[in-house]
Design brief:
Chains A, B: Belongs to the otopetrin family. The structure is a homodimer. With about 575 residues, chain A is mostly helical. Chain A has helices spanning about 15-40, 50-75, 90-120, 125-150, 155-195, 220-250, 275-295, 300-335, 345-375, 385-410, 415-430, 430-445, 455-465, 475-480, 485-525, 530-535, 535-540, 545-575. The longest helix of chain A is centred in the C-terminal third of the chain and has 44 residues, at about 485-525. Chain A is globular. Mean pLDDT of chain A is about 75; it is low at about 1-10 and about 415-485. The interface between A and B is large, with 66 and 66 residues.
């Protein structure tokens, strides 16, 4: 079983590569089978009901539970087996985030149990077993991720790989299931609005709307069924987050890591007040807009159009601000010339790929809107706002991705340490005049230190110092003896480092602002503001059914993008 | 522009990473816009016609043409700029393959021009301009790939990146367009069969079937319109191949390569007779089955069922053979203990990802069939053959992927060279008796030499030899002087190396057999044998429309899988 662990570092061993392909193919098949069951349920396939799908999911969760228990026991008894940790994986704020979502998911599960008890006459038992299993699964999985998200598994690889990939795809299937339920709910609401607005000509069939029997306790029923749909967005985020964390764990299996110290960079509110104020303003206004939108939309034609106009104008304003902030941040990066860290790092690679990949979801929707506006025969006034909105959505994600990916690839700032080193070295040389020009040379050229060059400078200073002869012996005494020289050099430092500090502060503020903006923009689609439905233009051009399919496929990625970019921006804020 | 090239090798420079993200996001947006245009055409969106889509494609091809001309001129005048080559990219047989497909694509283009001339009264001019542009595009692109597929571009990176990614996604869009046209054609044929069989209850509308006006020269018209659909599969393969080659070129931009000699391993027919005979038998029988299937299907209910039964039985037999061959090959690999080469290699990484990714397409279809068989209420006898067929499709691809990915990751065989070295060294020791046990130790343990261990053995032999004193001086003389010892050691070598040779011959035969089988299995779906349509069971369970959508989305990947795995197996055959 541990055949592969003794192989040389350069060439991987056969069993390990084999286990990788074996397990990934197993996972894909698991997922595809589940996907088809979900699809069959969605299209009301003959002979396939929701309980079939739920049974499949329950089985998968049960297997994962067993595997996690086995892993936890094994790692308790044999602590020596897992020594390496990936410092980049499973950051603390990620764990906190997943715990928050998990808690809300548990509330959702209890609502579902309550709903099942109320309608137990006409629901299949699987609908009761599912939330219970899911709650157990959630609790154990969060515990597992807290303890083991950073693990780099080196032993008994095959069984580990299968277990982890099983967990990844189980969570992805649960995500798919959540997304589908949510989409059906949104579509039903949209159809109800269409009925209210008098579009009876579209063949409207409400899908899985309500059970066929009466509720036993009427007041609780409506709370449960309403509450469930407000909690779903968090459940969806929980599963996709768990899935990505587990995927990083899977990619890390059998990896060789170089141990380089990672700076712990806790989040600080200090110095990002401006960004926070702007961001919170956006957040508040977005929540207000969403509430007004959800109340107004579908009431009457005029009210719907007003709600849409308000939504578009607000979004255009926010997106334009975000674009500006992103461009400013990129310009600041262009002024500096810091090299990028391209070392192997599965967590970061996944982050970058997910950003671009999931942005594609909303780009698809935006291109659909643009095409619809260009090709439509009639243009009600409010539809014109859709054009700048769609264009800005594309540009904003384009710029933001550039900013985030460059930020997470920049090498950690070592300027402060290096300045200290330089100061000690230069002060010890004991000659102010000869040193001042070299200072200027360093700090005029670039605001923060180029890591590639600094060691050279330091070493050359050391060489110079050593050639001075006795200078090396009276280091401590010199430091105390020449206060004039010291204050002069410190002044020079402070003026230079204050420029760097200013840039850093601007970047931190931008990251904080963008973080809050992304959180804000997550809210409207997650809680049912879907101008892509209500706008009506795309539905006329592409047809009702095709456009609904496109929206339902692309929207989950678009929603996930916002949460994921918010998480990445939080990291950027901490790192800057 | 060349800012990034001076940076240290370990950390990448900002402009390069930036250019990568900038260009990939540009490419994705280009693709998404095209995809939506294609989608709009497919769903008959209001105000969007085929000529809009064709205009978009013509524009993209034209931009690519200009870029390729610029690149060719630039690389002619400034030869010094491109010095590095990726020896793994753009293999000769890949270039030959793409040329073959390109020639057939040119014939297709000429057919399309002929078709346009015949129906010029009622077709838009874009339908005439498109094939002409496409022909020019094809010729220049093939020339470009022949000359520059191995390039590792180090200078003026931003413009290169944009040009290459533009080319990648232009080809992908042309592939999508080809796939859609082909799917529409297949669907029309299927609907015609359904009409013949009397299933009039399904709302059957033939899609883009024939132009609205009469043909000017009737005989040519039918040749053109028939011929076009037989040539489409090659056109589709051409674009996806070109796309993958260009993608590897894109991934290689700015890469640092270690120059290690690659063995040129030309394809030889010698020693793979058994595999070839079996493979050619499968190929012939498959062609026969396809011809009979296409003639019989849709004639009457009985004939259709017979054709389906024949198809399934043949496919089950072939797939079972392929599974067996794959398992044997994997067992042989397990007997050896050779380490894997995990060095950076974009071409190989893409190969492996494409194999697993595109296999998912046919796995999805297979899971659909399995689900349909389990859930269907009525089971005509012939549908039961579908179950082992679908299961075997999944297992066969699972095993074959394992085999191919392990094969392309194995380190090139150096056994022959090492044996020669060993022979010289050991012969020079001048003592037969003391050496024989060490030989046995080496060659009993493992059939081919473990690369990790050999240098050790060789060096220890050298040490031993040097401690012998004068032995090192009379190396040449010893070789000539002790014929008895030499023949003994040679005998020992030959018996050992013949085991290794036998294993190699079996592996080569298996690779050749699987190569021909994959080529064979490419034919039925590419030329319109689609039991997934004709079987009828899935359509009943999932519904006509949903199942057609699934098949049309998954089938192109399934078809591409066969051609791609055939190409990979050809490489495996050459390397083994």
């Amino acid at each position: 079983m541990e055949k592969g662990s003794g192989s040389p570092a350069a060439g991987g061993s056969c069993p390990q590569k084999n286990a990788e392909i074996l397990s990934s193919q197993y996972g894909i098949n698991l997922f595809l089978a589940g996907l088809l069951l979900t699809f069959a349920w969605a299209v009301h396939a003959v002979g396939i009901s929701k309980s079939h799908l739920l049974s499949y999911l329950i089985t998968l969760m049960f297997i994962q539970l067993l595997w996690m228990l086995w892993y936890l026991c094994r790692s308790c008894t044999q602590r020596r087996l897992i020594r390496d940790k990936d410092t980049h994986a499973g950051a603390r704020w990620l764990k906190c985030g997943i715990t928050l979502f998990a808690v809300i998911t548990l509330i959702l599960d209890s609502f579902k149990v309550g709903y099942y008890i109320d309608f137990s006459n006409c629901l299949s038992p699987t609908e009761g077993i599912f939330p219970v299993t899911h709650a157990a699964h959630t609790i154990l999985q969060v515990y597992f991720l807290w303890c083991h998200a950073k693990d780099i598994i080196q032993s008994f690889k095959t069984l580990e790989r299968f277990g982890v990939i099983h967990s990844v795809f189980t969570n992805l299937l649960l995500w798919t299931n959540g997304v589908l339920t949510e989409s059906k709910h949104q579509l039903n609401e949209h159809k109800e609005r269409l009925i209210t607005l008098g579009f009876g000509n579209i063949t409207i069939v409400l899908d899985d709307h309500a059970p066929q029997c009466n509720c036993t306790t009427t007041t609780l029923c409506s709370i449960f069924s309403q509450g469930i749909y407000y909690l779903y967005p968090f459940n969806i985020e929980y599963h996709i987050l768990a899935s990505t964390m587990l995927y990083v764990l899977w990619k890390n299996i059998g990896r060789k890591v170089e141990h380089h110290q990672q700076h712990k960079t806790p989040f600080k509110f200090h110095g990002i007040t401006v960004g926070m104020i702007f961001g919170l303003t956006v957040l508040t206004s977005t929540i207000a807009v969403v509430v007004v939108y959800l109340i107004q939309i579908g009431r009457s034609k005029v009210k719907s159009e007003l709600a849409l106009t308000m939504f578009y104008l607000h979004a255009i304003f926010v997106l334009a601000l975000m674009c500006t902030a992103g461009v400013v941040a990129l310009l600041i990066y262009r002024l500096e010339d810091r090299s990028l860290d391209n070392s192997k790092n599965p967590a970061r690679k996944l982050d970058a790929e997910l950003l671009v990949g999931t942005a594609a979801g909303s780009w698809l929707l935006s291109w659909g809107s643009i095409l619809a506006i260009i090709c439509a025969q009639a243009h009600p006034k409010y539809t014109w706002y859709n054009l700048p909105y769609s264009v800005l959505v594309i540009i904003e994600k384009y710029i933001q991705n550039l900013f985030i990916i460059e930020s997470i690839h920049r090498e950690q700032e070592k300027a402060n340490d290096d300045i200290k080193t330089l100061r000690i070295v230069t002060i010890s040389r004991g000659s102010t005049l000869s040193l001042t020009p070299s200072y200027k040379e360093i700090y005029n050229g670039r605001a923060t230190c180029d890591i590639g060059e600094l060691p050279c400078l330091v070493s050359s200073s050391i060489c110079a110092r050593e050639s001075d002869g006795g200078g090396s012996a009276n280091e401590e005494t010199n430091q105390g003896n020449s206060p004039v020289m010291r204050s002069a050099s410190e002044f020079s430092f402070h003026s230079r480092s204050s420029v760097a500090d200013n840039k850093r502060r601007i970047l931190k503020n931008i990251a904080a602002f963008l973080f809050l903006c992304n959180l804000s923009l997550w809210i409207p689609p997650a809680f049912g503001c879907r101008p892509e439905y209500d706008n009506g233009l795309e539905e006329i051009v592409f047809g009702f059914e095709p456009w609904i399919i496109v929206v339902n496929l692309a929207m989950p990625f678009s929603i996930f993008y916002r949460m994921h970019s918010a998480a990445s921006l939080f990291e950027v804020n901490c790192k800057t």
